[in-house]
Amino acid sequence: MAPPQGPRAPLEFGGPLGAAALLLLLPATMFHLLLVARSGPARLLGPPPYLPGLEALWSPQALLLWLTWLGLQAALYLLPARKVAEGQELKDKSRLCYPINGFQALVLTALLVGLGVSAGLPLGTLPEMLLPLAFSATFTAFIFSLFLYVKALVAPASALAPGGNSGNPIYDFFLGRELNPRIYFFDFKYFCELRPGLIGWVVINLALLVQEAELRGSPSLAMWLVNGFQLLYVGDALWHEEAVLTTMDITHDGFGFMLAFGDLAWVPFTYSLQAQFLLYHPQPLGLPMASVICLINAIGYYIFRGANSQKNTFRRNPSDPRVAGLETISTATGRQLLVSGWWGMVRHPNYLGDLIMALAWSLPCGVSHLLPYFYLLYFTALLVHREARDERQCLQKYGLAWHEYCRRVPYRIVPYVY
Ligand SMILES: NC(=O)C1=CN([C@@H]2O[C@H](COP(=O)(O)OP(=O)(O)OC[C@H]3O[C@@H](n4cnc5c(N)ncnc54)[C@H](OP(=O)(O)O)[C@@H]3O)[C@@H](O)[C@H]2O)C=CC1
Ligand SMILES: CC(C)CCC[C@@H](C)[C@H]1CC=C2C3=C(CC[C@@]21C)[C@@]1(C)CC[C@H](O)C(C)(C)[C@@H]1CC3
Protein backbone atom coordinates (compact mmCIF):
# COMPACT_ATOMS: atom_id res chain seq x y z
CA MET A 1 0.00 0.00 0.00
CA ALA A 2 1.35 3.47 -0.90
CA PRO A 3 1.91 5.80 2.05
CA PRO A 4 0.38 9.28 1.75
CA GLN A 5 2.95 11.80 0.52
CA GLY A 6 2.30 14.17 3.44
CA PRO A 7 1.79 17.91 3.20
CA ARG A 8 4.65 18.50 0.70
CA ALA A 9 2.46 19.54 -2.23
CA PRO A 10 0.61 22.79 -1.40
CA LEU A 11 -3.15 22.25 -1.10
CA GLU A 12 -5.24 23.66 -3.96
CA PHE A 13 -8.92 24.56 -4.40
CA GLY A 14 -9.16 25.80 -0.78
CA GLY A 15 -7.97 22.51 0.75
CA PRO A 16 -10.38 19.89 2.18
CA LEU A 17 -13.13 22.45 2.87
CA GLY A 18 -12.97 23.83 -0.65
CA ALA A 19 -12.95 20.30 -2.09
CA ALA A 20 -15.98 19.31 0.04
CA ALA A 21 -17.85 22.43 -1.13
CA LEU A 22 -16.98 21.75 -4.78
CA LEU A 23 -18.17 18.13 -4.48
CA LEU A 24 -21.65 19.52 -3.87
CA LEU A 25 -21.47 22.80 -5.75
CA LEU A 26 -20.37 21.44 -9.14
CA PRO A 27 -23.26 18.95 -9.56
CA ALA A 28 -25.70 21.52 -8.08
CA THR A 29 -24.56 24.13 -10.63
CA MET A 30 -24.93 21.65 -13.49
CA PHE A 31 -28.52 20.77 -12.48
CA HIS A 32 -29.32 24.45 -11.95
CA LEU A 33 -28.17 25.22 -15.51
CA LEU A 34 -30.15 22.30 -16.97
CA LEU A 35 -33.32 23.44 -15.20
CA VAL A 36 -32.90 27.13 -15.96
CA ALA A 37 -32.16 26.56 -19.67
CA ARG A 38 -35.64 25.09 -20.20
CA SER A 39 -37.47 27.62 -18.02
CA GLY A 40 -39.25 30.64 -19.51
CA PRO A 41 -37.22 33.44 -17.87
CA ALA A 42 -33.92 31.48 -18.23
CA ARG A 43 -32.37 33.48 -15.39
CA LEU A 44 -28.80 32.41 -14.62
CA LEU A 45 -28.76 34.21 -11.30
CA GLY A 46 -31.60 33.44 -8.97
CA PRO A 47 -33.31 30.29 -7.75
CA PRO A 48 -34.06 27.41 -10.15
CA PRO A 49 -37.65 27.36 -11.49
CA TYR A 50 -38.45 24.26 -9.40
CA LEU A 51 -36.65 21.55 -7.46
CA PRO A 52 -36.96 18.22 -9.27
CA GLY A 53 -38.01 15.21 -7.23
CA LEU A 54 -36.11 11.95 -7.36
CA GLU A 55 -38.63 10.62 -9.92
CA ALA A 56 -37.54 13.35 -12.39
CA LEU A 57 -33.86 12.53 -11.88
CA TRP A 58 -33.72 8.78 -11.47
CA SER A 59 -34.63 6.67 -14.48
CA PRO A 60 -33.41 3.10 -15.08
CA GLN A 61 -33.74 3.69 -18.86
CA ALA A 62 -31.49 6.74 -18.66
CA LEU A 63 -28.94 4.81 -16.60
CA LEU A 64 -29.05 1.96 -19.11
CA LEU A 65 -28.63 4.37 -22.02
CA TRP A 66 -25.71 6.07 -20.26
CA LEU A 67 -23.98 2.77 -19.48
CA THR A 68 -24.51 1.61 -23.08
CA TRP A 69 -22.90 4.85 -24.25
CA LEU A 70 -19.88 4.30 -21.98
CA GLY A 71 -19.65 0.69 -23.18
CA LEU A 72 -19.79 1.75 -26.83
CA GLN A 73 -17.04 4.34 -26.36
CA ALA A 74 -14.91 1.83 -24.44
CA ALA A 75 -15.34 -0.69 -27.28
CA LEU A 76 -14.31 1.95 -29.86
CA TYR A 77 -11.26 2.79 -27.72
CA LEU A 78 -10.19 -0.85 -27.87
CA LEU A 79 -10.39 -1.06 -31.68
CA PRO A 80 -7.05 -1.20 -33.54
CA ALA A 81 -5.49 2.29 -33.68
CA ARG A 82 -3.71 3.97 -36.60
CA LYS A 83 -0.90 4.82 -34.20
CA VAL A 84 0.23 4.13 -30.64
CA ALA A 85 1.85 7.19 -29.05
CA GLU A 86 4.19 7.40 -26.09
CA GLY A 87 3.32 9.72 -23.21
CA GLN A 88 5.68 11.99 -21.27
CA GLU A 89 8.42 10.42 -19.19
CA LEU A 90 7.18 9.30 -15.76
CA LYS A 91 8.88 9.48 -12.33
CA ASP A 92 10.31 5.98 -12.82
CA LYS A 93 11.65 7.05 -16.28
CA SER A 94 9.16 4.81 -18.11
CA ARG A 95 6.63 6.01 -20.71
CA LEU A 96 3.07 4.78 -21.16
CA CYS A 97 1.55 3.95 -24.55
CA TYR A 98 -1.76 5.42 -25.76
CA PRO A 99 -3.92 4.43 -28.76
CA ILE A 100 -4.53 7.29 -31.21
CA ASN A 101 -8.00 6.42 -32.49
CA GLY A 102 -10.21 9.17 -31.05
CA PHE A 103 -11.14 10.68 -34.42
CA GLN A 104 -11.96 7.20 -35.67
CA ALA A 105 -14.27 6.80 -32.63
CA LEU A 106 -16.01 10.08 -33.53
CA VAL A 107 -16.56 9.00 -37.15
CA LEU A 108 -17.78 5.52 -36.16
CA THR A 109 -20.12 7.06 -33.56
CA ALA A 110 -21.51 9.41 -36.24
CA LEU A 111 -22.06 6.41 -38.56
CA LEU A 112 -23.80 4.43 -35.82
CA VAL A 113 -26.02 7.38 -34.84
CA GLY A 114 -26.83 7.97 -38.54
CA LEU A 115 -27.72 4.30 -38.99
CA GLY A 116 -29.81 4.37 -35.81
CA VAL A 117 -31.74 7.47 -36.93
CA SER A 118 -32.46 6.00 -40.36
CA ALA A 119 -33.72 2.85 -38.61
CA GLY A 120 -36.14 4.98 -36.56
CA LEU A 121 -34.10 5.86 -33.44
CA PRO A 122 -35.89 8.93 -31.97
CA LEU A 123 -32.84 11.17 -31.48
CA GLY A 124 -35.10 14.21 -31.02
CA THR A 125 -36.41 12.77 -27.73
CA LEU A 126 -32.95 12.84 -26.12
CA PRO A 127 -33.30 16.48 -24.88
CA GLU A 128 -36.24 15.35 -22.70
CA MET A 129 -33.95 12.84 -21.02
CA LEU A 130 -31.13 15.29 -20.25
CA LEU A 131 -31.99 15.62 -16.55
CA PRO A 132 -32.02 11.85 -15.75
CA LEU A 133 -29.04 11.31 -18.05
CA ALA A 134 -27.06 13.99 -16.20
CA PHE A 135 -28.09 12.36 -12.92
CA SER A 136 -26.84 8.97 -14.15
CA ALA A 137 -23.57 10.53 -15.32
CA THR A 138 -23.08 12.21 -11.91
CA PHE A 139 -23.93 9.00 -10.08
CA THR A 140 -21.44 7.01 -12.19
CA ALA A 141 -18.78 9.71 -11.69
CA PHE A 142 -19.16 9.37 -7.87
CA ILE A 143 -18.99 5.56 -7.95
CA PHE A 144 -16.12 5.60 -10.42
CA SER A 145 -14.16 8.12 -8.29
CA LEU A 146 -14.64 5.83 -5.27
CA PHE A 147 -13.22 2.97 -7.31
CA LEU A 148 -10.26 5.17 -8.35
CA TYR A 149 -9.65 6.19 -4.74
CA VAL A 150 -9.61 2.57 -3.56
CA LYS A 151 -7.48 1.49 -6.53
CA ALA A 152 -4.88 4.13 -5.57
CA LEU A 153 -4.57 2.58 -2.09
CA VAL A 154 -2.79 -0.41 -3.63
CA ALA A 155 -0.85 1.53 -6.28
CA PRO A 156 2.95 1.93 -5.87
CA ALA A 157 4.14 5.36 -4.62
CA SER A 158 5.73 6.06 -8.02
CA ALA A 159 2.24 5.89 -9.63
CA LEU A 160 0.81 8.67 -7.45
CA ALA A 161 0.21 12.25 -8.64
CA PRO A 162 2.16 15.15 -7.09
CA GLY A 163 -1.08 16.57 -5.59
CA GLY A 164 -4.07 14.61 -4.30
CA ASN A 165 -2.12 12.63 -1.71
CA SER A 166 -2.48 14.86 1.31
CA GLY A 167 -3.87 12.13 3.57
CA ASN A 168 -7.24 13.94 3.80
CA PRO A 169 -9.75 11.54 2.19
CA ILE A 170 -12.17 14.22 0.94
CA TYR A 171 -9.44 16.32 -0.63
CA ASP A 172 -7.73 13.30 -2.17
CA PHE A 173 -11.04 11.87 -3.43
CA PHE A 174 -11.74 15.20 -5.14
CA LEU A 175 -8.32 15.83 -6.65
CA GLY A 176 -7.41 12.24 -7.47
CA ARG A 177 -4.54 10.17 -6.12
CA GLU A 178 -3.22 8.09 -8.99
CA LEU A 179 -1.70 9.85 -12.01
CA ASN A 180 -2.51 7.32 -14.72
CA PRO A 181 -4.92 4.68 -13.37
CA ARG A 182 -5.07 1.80 -15.84
CA ILE A 183 -6.16 -1.77 -16.23
CA TYR A 184 -3.70 -3.26 -18.72
CA PHE A 185 -3.81 -1.03 -21.83
CA PHE A 186 -7.03 0.74 -20.80
CA ASP A 187 -6.10 4.18 -19.45
CA PHE A 188 -9.13 5.58 -17.57
CA LYS A 189 -8.10 9.24 -17.51
CA TYR A 190 -7.07 9.44 -21.17
CA PHE A 191 -10.26 7.59 -22.19
CA CYS A 192 -12.55 9.86 -20.14
CA GLU A 193 -10.82 13.12 -21.12
CA LEU A 194 -11.56 12.75 -24.83
CA ARG A 195 -14.26 10.17 -25.53
CA PRO A 196 -17.60 9.77 -23.70
CA GLY A 197 -17.97 13.43 -22.64
CA LEU A 198 -16.64 15.24 -25.71
CA ILE A 199 -18.40 12.97 -28.23
CA GLY A 200 -21.48 12.95 -25.97
CA TRP A 201 -21.53 16.76 -26.10
CA VAL A 202 -21.69 16.67 -29.92
CA VAL A 203 -24.47 14.05 -29.89
CA ILE A 204 -26.52 16.10 -27.38
CA ASN A 205 -26.07 19.21 -29.56
CA LEU A 206 -27.21 17.23 -32.60
CA ALA A 207 -30.26 15.91 -30.74
CA LEU A 208 -31.17 19.49 -29.77
CA LEU A 209 -30.84 20.52 -33.42
CA VAL A 210 -33.05 17.60 -34.53
CA GLN A 211 -35.67 18.46 -31.91
CA GLU A 212 -35.65 22.09 -33.00
CA ALA A 213 -36.25 20.95 -36.59
CA GLU A 214 -39.14 18.77 -35.40
CA LEU A 215 -40.66 21.63 -33.40
CA ARG A 216 -40.19 24.51 -35.85
CA GLY A 217 -39.80 22.91 -39.27
CA SER A 218 -36.06 23.54 -39.57
CA PRO A 219 -33.11 24.30 -37.28
CA SER A 220 -32.38 27.99 -36.75
CA LEU A 221 -29.21 29.63 -38.08
CA ALA A 222 -28.10 30.20 -34.48
CA MET A 223 -28.46 26.47 -33.76
CA TRP A 224 -26.46 25.59 -36.89
CA LEU A 225 -23.65 27.93 -35.84
CA VAL A 226 -23.44 26.58 -32.28
CA ASN A 227 -23.48 22.99 -33.57
CA GLY A 228 -20.89 23.73 -36.27
CA PHE A 229 -18.46 25.62 -33.99
CA GLN A 230 -18.58 23.03 -31.23
CA LEU A 231 -18.28 20.12 -33.67
CA LEU A 232 -15.16 21.80 -35.07
CA TYR A 233 -13.77 22.11 -31.51
CA VAL A 234 -14.43 18.46 -30.65
CA GLY A 235 -13.27 17.20 -34.05
CA ASP A 236 -10.08 19.24 -33.67
CA ALA A 237 -9.42 17.82 -30.17
CA LEU A 238 -9.78 14.26 -31.46
CA TRP A 239 -7.81 14.89 -34.65
CA HIS A 240 -4.94 16.25 -32.52
CA GLU A 241 -5.52 13.64 -29.83
CA GLU A 242 -1.83 13.07 -29.22
CA ALA A 243 -1.45 16.67 -28.03
CA VAL A 244 -3.58 15.92 -24.96
CA LEU A 245 -0.71 13.78 -23.66
CA THR A 246 1.24 16.95 -22.78
CA THR A 247 -1.63 18.75 -21.01
CA MET A 248 -1.56 19.35 -17.28
CA ASP A 249 -4.48 16.97 -16.74
CA ILE A 250 -2.55 14.01 -18.11
CA THR A 251 0.99 14.86 -16.95
CA HIS A 252 0.31 16.37 -13.53
CA ASP A 253 -3.19 15.93 -12.10
CA GLY A 254 -4.39 12.76 -10.42
CA PHE A 255 -7.62 11.17 -11.62
CA GLY A 256 -10.33 11.78 -9.05
CA PHE A 257 -13.80 13.26 -8.80
CA MET A 258 -12.86 16.64 -10.31
CA LEU A 259 -11.78 15.18 -13.65
CA ALA A 260 -14.16 12.19 -13.62
CA PHE A 261 -17.17 14.43 -13.04
CA GLY A 262 -15.72 17.14 -15.33
CA ASP A 263 -15.15 14.73 -18.20
CA LEU A 264 -18.26 12.55 -17.86
CA ALA A 265 -20.96 14.95 -16.67
CA TRP A 266 -19.87 18.60 -16.71
CA VAL A 267 -18.60 18.66 -20.31
CA PRO A 268 -21.58 17.04 -22.11
CA PHE A 269 -24.35 18.58 -20.00
CA THR A 270 -23.07 22.12 -19.41
CA TYR A 271 -20.99 22.68 -22.56
CA SER A 272 -24.19 22.03 -24.56
CA LEU A 273 -25.92 24.87 -22.69
CA GLN A 274 -26.07 27.26 -25.67
CA ALA A 275 -27.86 24.66 -27.82
CA GLN A 276 -30.20 23.84 -24.90
CA PHE A 277 -30.98 27.53 -24.48
CA LEU A 278 -31.67 27.95 -28.21
CA LEU A 279 -34.14 25.05 -28.26
CA TYR A 280 -36.34 26.70 -25.63
CA HIS A 281 -35.55 30.35 -26.51
CA PRO A 282 -35.21 30.72 -30.30
CA GLN A 283 -33.15 33.75 -31.29
CA PRO A 284 -33.31 35.65 -34.58
CA LEU A 285 -29.95 35.89 -36.33
CA GLY A 286 -29.32 37.64 -39.65
CA LEU A 287 -26.64 36.69 -42.16
CA PRO A 288 -24.42 39.77 -41.58
CA MET A 289 -24.24 39.10 -37.81
CA ALA A 290 -23.75 35.37 -38.43
CA SER A 291 -20.78 36.21 -40.72
CA VAL A 292 -19.21 38.40 -38.03
CA ILE A 293 -19.62 35.60 -35.47
CA CYS A 294 -18.06 33.08 -37.90
CA LEU A 295 -15.12 35.45 -38.32
CA ILE A 296 -14.68 35.72 -34.53
CA ASN A 297 -14.72 31.92 -34.23
CA ALA A 298 -12.24 31.59 -37.11
CA ILE A 299 -9.84 34.10 -35.46
CA GLY A 300 -10.12 32.27 -32.12
CA TYR A 301 -9.55 28.90 -33.77
CA TYR A 302 -6.56 30.22 -35.75
CA ILE A 303 -4.85 31.45 -32.56
CA PHE A 304 -5.82 28.33 -30.53
CA ARG A 305 -4.64 25.85 -33.16
CA GLY A 306 -1.57 27.89 -34.17
CA ALA A 307 -0.36 28.20 -30.58
CA ASN A 308 -1.07 24.59 -29.57
CA SER A 309 0.52 23.16 -32.74
CA GLN A 310 3.57 25.41 -32.46
CA LYS A 311 4.26 24.24 -28.90
CA ASN A 312 3.56 20.59 -29.67
CA THR A 313 5.81 20.63 -32.75
CA PHE A 314 8.55 22.35 -30.75
CA ARG A 315 8.27 19.91 -27.83
CA ARG A 316 8.36 16.90 -30.15
CA ASN A 317 11.23 18.14 -32.33
CA PRO A 318 12.81 21.58 -31.73
CA SER A 319 14.69 21.35 -35.04
CA ASP A 320 11.50 20.90 -37.08
CA PRO A 321 11.75 23.56 -39.87
CA ARG A 322 8.37 25.03 -38.81
CA VAL A 323 9.79 26.08 -35.41
CA ALA A 324 13.58 25.95 -35.85
CA GLY A 325 13.79 29.70 -36.58
CA LEU A 326 11.99 30.75 -33.40
CA GLU A 327 13.84 32.45 -30.56
CA THR A 328 14.21 30.40 -27.36
CA ILE A 329 15.48 30.58 -23.77
CA SER A 330 17.54 27.68 -22.41
CA THR A 331 16.65 26.24 -19.02
CA ALA A 332 18.64 24.23 -16.49
CA THR A 333 16.50 21.15 -17.29
CA GLY A 334 17.82 21.04 -20.86
CA ARG A 335 14.38 21.95 -22.24
CA GLN A 336 13.90 25.28 -23.98
CA LEU A 337 11.14 27.87 -23.82
CA LEU A 338 9.84 29.65 -26.91
CA VAL A 339 10.01 33.46 -26.67
CA SER A 340 8.91 34.36 -30.17
CA GLY A 341 6.03 33.29 -32.42
CA TRP A 342 2.72 32.75 -30.59
CA TRP A 343 4.49 32.10 -27.27
CA GLY A 344 6.28 35.46 -27.51
CA MET A 345 2.97 37.34 -27.75
CA VAL A 346 1.53 36.24 -24.38
CA ARG A 347 2.43 33.38 -22.05
CA HIS A 348 -0.80 31.49 -22.86
CA PRO A 349 -1.81 32.30 -26.45
CA ASN A 350 -3.79 29.03 -26.66
CA TYR A 351 -6.04 30.21 -23.80
CA LEU A 352 -6.64 33.49 -25.64
CA GLY A 353 -7.80 31.65 -28.78
CA ASP A 354 -9.99 29.33 -26.71
CA LEU A 355 -11.64 32.31 -24.98
CA ILE A 356 -12.34 34.07 -28.29
CA MET A 357 -14.04 30.89 -29.52
CA ALA A 358 -16.05 30.72 -26.28
CA LEU A 359 -17.36 34.22 -27.05
CA ALA A 360 -18.31 33.15 -30.60
CA TRP A 361 -20.31 30.20 -29.19
CA SER A 362 -22.42 32.51 -27.01
CA LEU A 363 -23.05 35.34 -29.46
CA PRO A 364 -25.58 33.38 -31.64
CA CYS A 365 -27.79 33.29 -28.53
CA GLY A 366 -28.20 37.07 -28.60
CA VAL A 367 -27.68 39.46 -25.73
CA SER A 368 -31.07 39.28 -24.02
CA HIS A 369 -29.97 36.61 -21.50
CA LEU A 370 -26.86 36.03 -19.41
CA LEU A 371 -27.36 32.23 -19.35
CA PRO A 372 -25.67 31.39 -22.69
CA TYR A 373 -22.65 33.40 -21.51
CA PHE A 374 -22.20 31.07 -18.54
CA TYR A 375 -19.60 29.05 -20.48
CA LEU A 376 -17.56 32.18 -21.24
CA LEU A 377 -17.64 33.29 -17.59
CA TYR A 378 -16.85 29.85 -16.17
CA PHE A 379 -14.14 29.27 -18.77
CA THR A 380 -12.45 32.61 -18.03
CA ALA A 381 -12.34 31.67 -14.32
CA LEU A 382 -11.10 28.15 -15.14
CA LEU A 383 -8.32 29.38 -17.43
CA VAL A 384 -7.17 32.17 -15.08
CA HIS A 385 -6.95 29.60 -12.28
CA ARG A 386 -5.30 27.04 -14.57
CA GLU A 387 -2.81 29.60 -15.78
CA ALA A 388 -1.83 30.42 -12.16
CA ARG A 389 -1.37 26.68 -11.42
CA ASP A 390 0.72 26.23 -14.55
CA GLU A 391 2.90 29.27 -13.73
CA ARG A 392 3.62 27.79 -10.27
CA GLN A 393 4.63 24.49 -11.82
CA CYS A 394 6.78 26.16 -14.49
CA LEU A 395 8.51 28.33 -11.88
CA GLN A 396 9.29 25.18 -9.92
CA LYS A 397 10.54 23.39 -13.06
CA TYR A 398 12.49 26.20 -14.73
CA GLY A 399 13.39 28.65 -11.88
CA LEU A 400 15.40 31.63 -13.18
CA ALA A 401 14.69 30.81 -16.83
CA TRP A 402 10.96 31.15 -16.11
CA HIS A 403 11.57 34.57 -14.51
CA GLU A 404 13.43 35.58 -17.64
CA TYR A 405 10.52 34.35 -19.82
CA CYS A 406 8.05 36.37 -17.71
CA ARG A 407 10.27 39.46 -18.09
CA ARG A 408 10.46 39.02 -21.88
CA VAL A 409 6.75 38.14 -22.25
CA PRO A 410 5.00 40.14 -19.50
CA TYR A 411 1.34 39.43 -20.37
CA ARG A 412 -0.32 36.16 -19.42
CA ILE A 413 -3.39 35.75 -21.66
CA VAL A 414 -4.52 39.04 -23.23
CA PRO A 415 -1.81 41.34 -24.67
CA TYR A 416 -1.56 44.67 -22.78
CA VAL A 417 -4.50 43.70 -20.52
CA TYR A 418 -3.70 40.63 -18.44
N1 LIG B 1 -12.43 23.60 -23.20
C1 LIG B 1 -12.01 23.37 -22.00
O1 LIG B 1 -12.77 23.14 -21.07
C2 LIG B 1 -10.57 23.44 -21.70
C3 LIG B 1 -9.65 23.67 -22.69
N2 LIG B 1 -8.34 23.75 -22.39
C4 LIG B 1 -7.40 23.97 -23.50
O2 LIG B 1 -6.47 22.93 -23.47
C5 LIG B 1 -5.25 23.37 -24.06
C6 LIG B 1 -4.08 22.89 -23.23
O3 LIG B 1 -4.02 23.65 -22.04
P1 LIG B 1 -3.09 23.36 -20.77
O4 LIG B 1 -2.81 21.93 -20.63
O5 LIG B 1 -3.72 24.07 -19.62
O6 LIG B 1 -1.78 24.14 -21.00
P2 LIG B 1 -0.76 24.38 -22.17
O7 LIG B 1 -1.01 23.58 -23.37
O8 LIG B 1 -0.68 25.86 -22.34
O9 LIG B 1 0.57 23.82 -21.56
C7 LIG B 1 1.31 24.49 -20.57
C8 LIG B 1 2.70 23.93 -20.66
O10 LIG B 1 3.33 24.37 -21.86
C9 LIG B 1 4.73 24.47 -21.68
N3 LIG B 1 5.11 25.84 -21.99
C10 LIG B 1 4.69 26.98 -21.41
N4 LIG B 1 5.24 28.05 -21.99
C11 LIG B 1 6.04 27.58 -22.95
C12 LIG B 1 6.91 28.21 -23.91
N5 LIG B 1 7.06 29.52 -23.96
N6 LIG B 1 7.60 27.42 -24.75
C13 LIG B 1 7.45 26.08 -24.72
N7 LIG B 1 6.67 25.43 -23.84
C14 LIG B 1 5.97 26.17 -22.98
C15 LIG B 1 4.98 24.14 -20.21
O11 LIG B 1 5.22 22.74 -20.09
P3 LIG B 1 6.62 22.02 -20.52
O12 LIG B 1 7.66 23.08 -20.54
O13 LIG B 1 6.82 20.98 -19.48
O14 LIG B 1 6.36 21.46 -21.88
C16 LIG B 1 3.65 24.41 -19.57
O15 LIG B 1 3.48 23.68 -18.39
C17 LIG B 1 -5.35 24.89 -24.20
O16 LIG B 1 -5.58 25.24 -25.52
C18 LIG B 1 -6.57 25.24 -23.37
O17 LIG B 1 -7.20 26.38 -23.87
C19 LIG B 1 -7.88 23.62 -21.12
C20 LIG B 1 -8.76 23.41 -20.10
C21 LIG B 1 -10.16 23.30 -20.31
C1 LIG C 1 -15.71 20.35 -13.21
C2 LIG C 1 -14.69 21.38 -12.95
C3 LIG C 1 -15.27 22.75 -13.00
C4 LIG C 1 -13.44 21.34 -13.75
C5 LIG C 1 -13.37 20.27 -14.76
C6 LIG C 1 -12.46 20.69 -15.85
C7 LIG C 1 -12.61 19.82 -17.08
C8 LIG C 1 -14.02 19.92 -17.59
C9 LIG C 1 -11.60 20.31 -18.13
C10 LIG C 1 -10.16 20.22 -17.62
C11 LIG C 1 -9.34 20.20 -18.83
C12 LIG C 1 -10.11 19.87 -19.89
C13 LIG C 1 -9.72 19.80 -21.25
C14 LIG C 1 -10.64 19.65 -22.25
C15 LIG C 1 -12.09 19.51 -21.90
C16 LIG C 1 -12.45 20.03 -20.53
C17 LIG C 1 -11.51 19.55 -19.46
C18 LIG C 1 -11.66 18.05 -19.26
C19 LIG C 1 -10.25 19.45 -23.70
C20 LIG C 1 -10.34 17.94 -23.90
C21 LIG C 1 -11.23 20.16 -24.64
C22 LIG C 1 -10.80 20.07 -26.10
C23 LIG C 1 -9.43 20.71 -26.28
O1 LIG C 1 -9.02 20.73 -27.65
C24 LIG C 1 -8.34 20.04 -25.43
C25 LIG C 1 -7.07 20.86 -25.57
C26 LIG C 1 -8.03 18.66 -25.96
C27 LIG C 1 -8.85 20.06 -23.95
C28 LIG C 1 -7.86 19.48 -22.94
C29 LIG C 1 -8.26 19.96 -21.56
What does this structure look like?
Its main location: membrane. Helix content is 59%, strand content 4%. The protein contains 16 helices and six strands. It has two domains: 268 residues, no CATH class; 136 residues, no CATH class. It is globular, with a radius of gyration of 22 Å. The strands form three sheets. A two-stranded antiparallel ribbon has the order 1-2. The protein has a two-stranded antiparallel ribbon with strand order 3-4. The chain has a two-stranded antiparallel ribbon with strand order 5-6. With 418 residues, the protein is mainly α. The structure holds NADPH dihydro-nicotinamide-adenine-dinucleotide phosphate and ligand LPDX5YLU. The ligand CC(C)CCC[C@@H](C)[C@H]1CC=C2C3=C(CC[C@@]21C)[C@@]1(C)CC[C@H](O)C(C)(C)[C@@H]1CC3 binds next to helix 7, helix 9 and helix 11.
Keywords:
418 residues, mainly alpha, 6 strands, 59% helix, binds NADPH dihydro-nicotinamide-adenine-dinucleotide phosphate, binds the ligand CC(C)CCC[C@@H](C)[C@H]1CC=C2C3=C(CC[C@@]21C)[C@@]1(C)CC[C@H](O)C(C)(C)[C@@H]1CC3
Architecture blueprint of SSEs:
Layout: H1 15-37, H2 54-57, H3 60-78, E1 84-86, E2 97-99, H4 102-118, H5 130-153, H6 169-175, E3 182-183, E4 186-187, H7 188-194, H8 196-216, H9 221-239, H10 248-251, H11 257-270, H12 273-280, H13 287-316, E5 328-330, E6 336-338, H14 349-362, H15 374-398, H16 400-408
Antiparallel strand pairs: 1-2, 3-4, 5-6
Helix pairs in contact: 1-5, 1-6, 1-11, 3-5, 5-11, 7-8, 7-11, 8-9, 8-11, 9-12, 9-13, 9-14, 13-14, 14-15, 15-16
Bound molecules: NADPH dihydro-nicotinamide-adenine-dinucleotide phosphate and the ligand CC(C)CCC[C@@H](C)[C@H]1CC=C2C3=C(CC[C@@]21C)[C@@]1(C)CC[C@H](O)C(C)(C)[C@@H]1CC3.
The ligand CC(C)CCC[C@@H](C)[C@H]1CC=C2C3=C(CC[C@@]21C)[C@@]1(C)CC[C@H](O)C(C)(C)[C@@H]1CC3 binds near residues 193 and 267.
